[in-house]
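**Reference record**
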Amino acid sequence: MEISVHKKQLLIVLCLISLSILGSGSGCVSKMKYMQLEAGLHNAEKQAAYAQSRYKYQKKINIQLAGRIEKLELETKKKQSVIKLQKEIISLLDDTKKTIETSLKDQIAKQEIEVVNMEDKLKVIFIDKILFNSGSSKINYSGKKLLLRMAGFLRDNKKQNIMIEGHTDNVPLKERLKKRFAGNWELSTARAAAIARFLQKKGGLDPKRLSACGYSCYRPVAPNNTKKGRRQNRRIEIILVPIK
């Protein structure tokens, strides 16, 4: 508690009373005694001032500590929230992966489809001609069946957005295809857009959850100098991204 002016005045009054009592007893106060009392008063004032200074300093420190504690508590809550969200995302992706692997187990066994975990996302890769015939952007019959199967368990799972990526090998399009597509950029983009449209119209997925893009031959996953590598590069990737 702060040392008030009234307390200082009280000290002075007490000293004066002491002087008057001494004066009444002896008739006078020696100069030495007066100086001692004055020194005592001065010392008391110094101690009071020091105590007040220490109090203000300690109050300032306490305010700073309270601010730091509040900041740490807020950061802890944020981290706990992030950890909880990450656990929910991992659980969601694990459940989705199990569902996809069960639903598409035959195609996975034939290495026509791959399911890959990538940090907080899940990637389903449709390889080569499983969705499209060569040089076409029209989804084939088997592709439609597979996409409808996927849409079935993605439709009600509104906690994931769906990114569709089209990829090709580096072989230039034949002349007959150039009437429809200027190159692999256009072909890869058209395929991705066709899948997005199909999932919306036939699969019943909310279009706000869908996005489509094409990357031509510029994001290969294997060398293009072998038949096997080119087959792996001709692919559609459907990436499930949890909504945070």
